Amino acid sequence: MRRIAFFGGSFDPPHRGHLAIATAAADLFALDQILFAPAARQPLKGKYPATDFLHRYTMTALATQADLRFVPSLLDAPKSDGPNQTRPNYTVETLGKLRASLVAEPEPTALFTLLGADSWLDIGHWFQSARLLALSDWIVAARPGFSLAGAEAALPPEVKAERGPSAIDLATHAANHSSSALPACDLTLHHADAAITRVWFLPHLKEDISATELRGVLDEGHPDPELLPEPVWNYIAKTQVYRAENARG
Questions:
Q1: Domain boundaries in the chain?
Q2: Is 162 strand, coil or helix?
Q3: How would you label 5-22 residue by residue, b for 16+ Cβ within 10 Å and e otherwise?
Q4: Phi and psi at residue 36, to the nearest 5°
Q5: Is the CB of residue 40 less than 8 Å from the CB of residue 76?
Q6: Which of 12, 82, 123, 205 is deepest in the core (most CB within 10 A)?
Q7: Are 99 and 123 in contact (CB under 8 A)?
Q8: In sequence order, what are the residues at sequence separation of 6 or more whose Cβ sits closer than 8 angstroms to the Cβ of residue 52?
Q9: What would the pLDDT profile of 47-68 be if each residue is shown by its tens digit?
Q10: Percent over 90 (pLDDT), the chain
């Protein structure tokens, strides 16, 4: 059985923190692919205009080229109403389309969604969050001080959480993943339609990089190239995409 993870986000810009999360997840869960999908427009990040999608996709492709498990994806590209679209990209719709496409393939595929702890704590506010949480298993990059209690509190009320794997989940795990066992999950999610999905928290990640702060220093022309993969840094230096007069599309 293949294992694929969806990793959505602004990637504005993609930095070493994103790669550290993806590498840890790919190693621990024996993932065959992680789909890095820059979002055309995120509904919960409207405080600043995003850099032009083409720049963000290009930088994502450059950032991921060193690891064959990492694949740049257009799953969350701008919709057909053009680059000035007013409707956000909703993860529930993107993930639903991805899941449907995988079901149609001849080889069975386990689908995961990868995200950071900050995004998880807002998960109850995401569009159709209860439906979203039933579409895949979840891998969350935890941070120091991130607790299971806080993780459970973030869930929408329709979704019930059980700490650790349930008896049903253990049986499913044994049937579907016997060739390469997954670690015991931190939370088992029970959904209204009796579906079960699982949540794991990746501990001990040290790359605490803020993309917002990184954009600020790039705007000022004083970046730290150690925070960025070298091909991304070279692209930014060449295009000056984050200088204030060029940055927003």
A1: 2-210
A2: strand
A3: bbbbbbbbbbbbbbbbbb
A4: -85, 110
A5: yes
A6: 12
A7: no
A8: 83, 241, 248, 249
A9: 557 899 999 999 999 999 999 9
A10: 56
Dig out the tokens for 24 from the structure.
């840890």
Backbone angles phi, psi at 53, to 5 degrees: -55, -40
What pTM was computed for the model? 0.87
Burial class (CB in 10 A: 0-12, 13-18, 19+), 107: exposed
Cα–Cα distance measured from residue 36 to residue 75, given in angstroms and rounded to the nearest whole number: 9
Give the residue among 37, 86, 41 at the shortest CA–CA distance from 57: 37
Are 169 and 144 a contacting pair, CB within 8 Å?
Answer: no
Pick the closest to residue 36 from 2, 80, 76 (CA basis). Answer: 76
Report whether 148 contacts 186 (CB < 8 A).
Answer: yes
